[in-house]
Batch of 4 targets.
Target 1
Amino acid sequence: MTEKSRPRGDFWRILPGVLISLIVLAVLIFLIDWQIFFTALKQANYSFLLLALPVYVVSYLVRSRSWHILLMEEPPFKQVFLTEQAGYLMNNVLPFGFIFAGQTQITVGLSSIINAMTPLFAVLVMAAVSVVVAVYVMVAIPVMVGNSL
């Protein structure tokens, strides 16, 4: 792959993510009541953010470094860090936007059914994670000790 063709390939690779982000932002901007939004911003206490910011930055750097080590330092640290931040964006920010959009579109009856089912889904997810962890431990211990299955 030549250097001239690489930027164009990178553009096409990130284009779907950029388009999805722009569409979500446009929808959210359309749905926001700006007067309530700015009133809430004026009433917020920002001193807690100053205390939390260094903790978040250090935790992100530590997690990125651990992935960098696990990947045997093959990709550059900057690439690992940026990829991890993109994953956090997709995992944390977008679901809340979808929840907000869903709350504005669904009826009260459906909303109460979904809210009532939340504990059941939490128990099912917890059980599934427990099974996966148990299987992993049962497979990993013999491998770590030196005996294969």
Target 2
Amino acid sequence: MQIFVLNDFTFDQTEEFQNLAGYFRREISPYAVWHRYDTPEEMAIALRARIMAVDMEPILVLRAAAYMLTREGIQAMLTALDTNPDLACILPVSGGSTDLPFVPEYYTIHGFRGVALRCSQLESTLTEWRGEGDPGVYVCVPARLRDVDLDADVMTWPQQLGERSRVCINCYMVSFYDIYKQERQDVFEYLPTNLRSLLDIGCSQGYFGAAVKRRLGIRVVGAEINPVEATKARHCLDEVWQGDILTMDVDEHFDCITCLDVLEHFSHPQRLLVSLQRWLRPDSRLVLTVPNIGHWSIIEALLAGHWEYSPVGIQCETHARFYTRDSLTRLLEDCGYAIERIGFAPVSMPPQFASAVESLIKSGMEVDVDSLNRTGFYVSCRLKGRH
């Protein structure tokens, strides 16, 4: 099998997605041949050459190395193409699909594999692709693509093919493509009132800061270590500091500093929390979101003997520290902060896990049920002794 993938330098420069690419390679046959292209135009030229040569070898087309599939799922797509000569493209099914007979829920790689396995065991079914635009991933046979607009973006070809494109529900896919494009509307209720300025640590491409600017009309500065992401963020924020936040020497104060899923990436979080104080006014606030390592999905995987890192989420590849509510609270207090509000991202235990927990409680074991039902924490705090 041939694999055509676009280089996305945002992903290529992050450790998380380098590891995702490694996972992808392990899941695909070692005999697969990878072809990487810097632009969609270069990929289109290469695909057009295969079409003109009436090439019958399947090609897996990827918008970027930002998707997760399993070996069994990919094989299911290849089998669908092989047994349906009238079809030109096969796409994987994703979590938002209404074609699945169950709602896929998972928060770990272990959980993802369970969902993917469940899909692979369903009765083999091909359904209509109702999506529009860019599917991100598809498998095609070049010789069957002669009636597409070869000048169009290759990611629009499945849509052009209409009835000759189908979704294989036996191949489950999870996409991380938009992970750096989150506006984080869930954080707004934790921001202080009467804001005039905000510093967003780890601002990525600036989507959250841009949303703050649109909604509140204030000055927003971002800090980002990834140069590619920082360049993109400069298009939507008032200013972006690029580099290591611990070594920056900038003389400015802010009404609020946000660290959204950032603290856990620091091996010495105390240094970050103390360093941020130089940019806080006496009445400023620090707002953080931090994942909870005590969530039931992590415990469930551990009970099954699994600990696997993922590109994002509670077990993100680049997490240097892991927190429960207790350890996070003690860290903030030790670094001179007074917590004013702590909120939660609730995801409740499934019934079978809840039943097991109830048995543990009845046996006399101490169990923090609230922690098991929280994927993460929202914290708003100020410097101690300041109001």
Target 3
Amino acid sequence: MSDDDGLFGPGSATWHLMGEPILWVAGIRALYLQALHPRTMRGTWQNSALVHRHEAWARFVRTTEFVRIRTYGSTAEAERIGRRVRKIHATLTGVDADGTEFRLDEPEQLLWVHCAEVESYVDICRRCGMDAPPDRLDEFVDEQRRSAALVGLDPQAVPGSVAELDAYYDETRRRARACDEARMSLRMSFNPPFPPALVPLKLVTPALNILAFAALPRWARKLYGAPGSAVTDRATTVALRGLYQATRLAPARLRYTPTVRQARQIVREYERQQASDAWPPADDQDAHARLGPARSPQPSLAGAESVSERPGPLRVNQRAGRNRSNGHEGNVAARTELAARVPGGGGGAARRHRGDPP
């Protein structure tokens, strides 16, 4: 990675949360929730490789690559893939149940898809026992408005906190429904078309899908015809905690992808730099006030060493400087310019929705 950390960077909540394997469950949960918007599901079904099993894996790979670049790529890479997605969506149309033709890049559909993804990440992070206090989750939701801009949404019309996500679903879930295409997609997800080298994954896919489905809000499970029991919620939370703890036992080289391992190394260097910049600590500042400059404690050579002078390929002094103002607002100019160029949207915060409490 270069000094351009893209839309987020090492001080962000996004980099702190997104690399954990448990979030694969969140990704599957998001697909099930996204499918409950009938127009979105029909448009996807009519234009997607989902219905062609020999093409479905390639589509899945493209989707995961989009998430990887959006999260960890440079600003230029994120903008480039965002332009590609917007261009594709702008050319696609679907036909609703009443024969009405619609565009796939309608803001209402894009917002539903975005919120389902972000809310799923938030829900799994909160329930699995990850280090994700409420303020960090609010940070994450706010940061993801930059992701929304990539697909053509006005960031100011996108939920910027967990409370706003809850309010969005309070408003919109009344229009949600499990159409025939959504039910077919749910069934197909239990027998995905893995390439030959990954066929063994078929053994764990049903268990992961069941866990992802059980993690849906009660109202969403009911729309699919399943019980919306509080007992299911509690059992699912226990299972998520157990799975998260199990993944933590794996060594980093197996637990994380190469991109995530590199990002975690950048985060460690960034945190060392932040600690160095914070010298002297509070106790030393008190001593400095008592003793005066001539007798105040001096930093050790190890503490004064600049990260950029240490061996290795990572140089984070510039990176830390860009993020220092609030811990995660790196590349502000580039992000502001990106948001300014996003078409559509306009004014007013969107209203949002709440899943049933576990």
Target 4
Amino acid sequence: MAERLAPRRLTPDERWLPPRFHTRSRAARRLLGSAHSLAFAADRYPLLVLDFEFSIRRPEGPVARCVSGVWHAHGRTPHRRERILPTAEVVLLLVLGPPLRMTEPAKRGATRDLSGAWLTGPHEHPILNEPLGETHVVGAVFAPGGFSAFLDDPVDSVANRIVPLESLTCSLGHGRELLAELTPCLGGSVAIEAVSRALAARLAPPADYERWRSAAEALSDPDVSTVAEVQHTLGVSRRHFADRVRRRIGLLPKSIQRIARLRRLVAELDARKPIRWSSEAVGAGYFDQPHAIREFRRFTGMTPVEYVERRRQAWGHDLEPGEAGRFVPEITR
């Protein structure tokens, strides 16, 4: 009888996202989803491509009100390029390996090779990501409005941009200290813990941060029917509300709501089976299917059908619904 392989269990507060880079096999996906290590799955399924590791953890304490997750990515992706769909979040990137080549949203279009500490700001159009080698990055996702607890300047100064951390005036400094702490790190858990501690130590929210954080949460909820509802709860004028939201989150209130609706639609789409577009559109908060198509094309540059076809060409019919749908492989024909 063959020796039984013992799985390595992850720590309770660490989870593995759906294996969008790991495999098309349902059997291997079940192994990964039940917290078996990549090594265990690779031993059991040696013919599968299992060379990309991604883990994410929500920090604890007050910093969790600003940072929705700290993550670690290491390995090679099977696709040369991918689109990162719009978001109201700011993302910190600490590049430990070969540079990442990223192109800003279409209106700016600047292409940058990222080494060291960088930020991607909230963006209304896709960012193009093109690793130049093996990916090794530690990052943090700031909840909408969360980066205002670290940045002295208005957040809209980084909107639709990819900028080096050293170009900003913020409590995170130039990023050198963060990178120095991560250099000796060998595993994802250690790197995630180091960045979580560093963010907690540098937290410096303004006096009215909680008030506008609640507004950001409400605008990011697709079930909130109108911007006016959120504005009314704060008791400020329409102009003052729009200006404050833009400065604290980086985008205008209506754009934040529209992106939140798009993300719900993307997260709930199940590319493994036939899609009833009218039901999906209404379920995500759109008036009807034509409304969803217009919004989808406006924010992604493709129709919903084209988006699903790209996912199916890249992953077959085995990729489960979820936030991984925000990453769309560029298919080379």
